[in-house]
Amino acid sequence: LLMFYEAQDARRRHSIGVARSADGGITWARGDAPLLEPSAEEGAWDAAAVARPWVVGPLEDGSARMYYLGRGADGAQAIGLAESRGRDWSAWRRVES
Questions:
Q1: Do 78 and 60 touch, CB atoms closer than 8 A?
Q2: With a threshold of 0.85, does the pTM exceed it?
Q3: How far apart are CA 29 and CA 72, in angstroms?
Q4: Contact 86/63 with Cβ under 8 angstroms?
Q5: Residue 64 pLDDT more than 70?
């Protein structure tokens, strides 16, 4: 099982992580690093936070899509889209419009 979740780091920045369970959800192990962090690009629409993941998949090719809330430094929010790198749901890339 996979569980996608929102977390805050020591600087209170929201990011998205994943936890895995091999025993039907009794115990969970988190990944070492976030799957998706606020954009490092200055002025990016999601540079302040990424949060509230909603994962859809698997798609026909085994990949998945993640819709998420992004927030910019000005407080404006929008919905973003990231795609898994094929069947590897531990690696994601933002889809730019």
A1: no
A2: yes
A3: 30
A4: yes
A5: yes
